[in-house]
Amino acid sequence: MVTPLPPFALDPSAPPRLALAEGEVHVWCLFAERFGDAAALARLADLMTPDERARQSRFVRARDRHLQLLARALVRVLFSAYAGEPPDAWRFGTGPHGKPYLAAPALAPPLAFNLSHTEGLVAAAFTLRDEVGVDVEDLDRRAPTLDVARRFFAPSEVARLEAEPPERQTDVFFAFWTLKEAYLKARGLGLSAPLASFAFDLDADPPAIRFAPPIDDEPARWRFVRDAPSDRHRLAVAVARPAGAACHVRIGRVEPAGAGR
Ligand SMILES: CC(C)(COP(=O)(O)OP(=O)(O)OC[C@H]1O[C@@H](n2cnc3c(N)ncnc32)[C@H](O)[C@@H]1OP(=O)(O)O)[C@@H](O)C(=O)NCCC(=O)NCCS
Fold first, then answer.
1. Best CA proximity match to 26, nearest among 260, 256, 252, 196
2. What is the pLDDT of residues 3-51, one digit of tens each?
3. pLDDT averaged over the chain?
4. Does 168 score more than 70 pLDDT?
5. 119 CA to middle of ligand 1, Å?
6. Which residue(s) pair with 123 in the sheet?
7. Residue 236's closest CA among 135, 115, 112?
8. Measured from the CA of 188, which atom of ligand 1 is nearest?
9. Helices 155-162 and 166-187, axial angle in degrees (round to 10)
10. What letter does residue 15 receive in the DSSP assignment?
């Protein structure tokens, strides 16, 4: 089940108050082009640690630095919204394949999160405890070819894609791509897992997953949701829940501070 969340404004001095129930996943989408006010961006930049600032400055393109800044601020303001400390209080670490997690201060119950960004869009998913992964992609970027799918996807996914009329192939390609990324990101595996060793069935509602060696996992513990945050963006979220346990995904939008005033 997917339901909307009311929007909030990204203001580090006034994070909203948000709460997550057991089994609930909140996915927040932020459209980067709406965040152009220099003074507001400077306030968001103040939240970054020196390491985050150094990393951000290494991006060559201004729009990537912009996305990085928004991503860092979004995650910090959201932790504050769910857990109450100020946005600059949070410290992050990364797992063996680069998955970020909250290192301090410790929260009970722990909050899990994941982040994705693409041209024009940042998305962050938050949930209690459970493994979560999110991926967003921009359909307007260079069109993927069937060759990419034939090289990386599972045979059933390639067959499904080849059966689509050409005008549907980009959409179907990115449906598979975002789901595969969301799963890998929930597991924190990055690209260390072979992409053909798990396959999605898009005809199931919600999408279903199958595994083949070397991936050792249990399809019944996974829930997947797909969404289209805009005409050009596609999103998928993956969350691991105990088999049979309820899962409720809610999707909302983050606006610039002062928007609509
Ligand atoms: C790094 C990776 C996890 C995601 O990369 P991506 O799709 O290019 O980028 P996204 O914007 O979706 O995700 C990046 C964010 O994921 C998080 N992340 C990084 N490594 C991660 C991992 N191992 N697991 C989960 N999340 C991870 C980080 O927050 C990162 O953003 P940040 O560096 O600004 O903090 C990895 O899967 C990758 O390199 N993918 C390349 C694309 C590809 O070949 N995909 C095949 C899909 S079929």
1. 252
2. 999 999 999 999 999 999 999 999 999 999 999 999 999 999 999 999 9
3. 95
4. yes
5. 14
6. 29, 116
7. 135
8. 24
9. 160
10. P
How far apart are the CA of 133 and the centre of ligand 1, in A? 10
Asked if residue 260 has pLDDT above 80, the reply is no
Those residues whose C-beta lies under 8 Å from the C-beta of residue 60, and which sit 6 or more positions away, are none
Furthest-apart CA atoms within the chain: distance in Å: 55
Binning the chain into helix, strand and coil, the percentages to the nearest 5 are 35, 30, 35
Measured CA distances, 149 to 170, 195, 201, 240 (Å): 11, 10, 15, 25
What's the CA-to-centroid distance between 253 and ligand 1, angstroms? 21
Tokens for 254?
Answer: 């983050």
CA distance linking residue 247 with residue 241, whole number of Å: 7
Testing ligand 1's pocket by substitution, the residue of 48, 116, 178 carrying the most ligand atoms inside 8 A of its CB is 116
Tokens of 39: 């003074």
Task: With beta carbons less than 8 A apart as the criterion, state whether 134 and 150 touch.
Answer: no
Domains defined along the chain, listed by start: 2-7+23-256 (3.90.470.20)
d(CA 163, CA 155) in angstroms, rounded, equals 12
80 CA → ligand 1 middle, Å: 24
Pocket-forming residues, ligand 1, beta carbon under 6 Å: 68, 71, 97-100, 114-117, 133, 135, 152, 177, 180-181, 184-185, 188, 190-191, 195
pTM above threshold 0.85 = yes
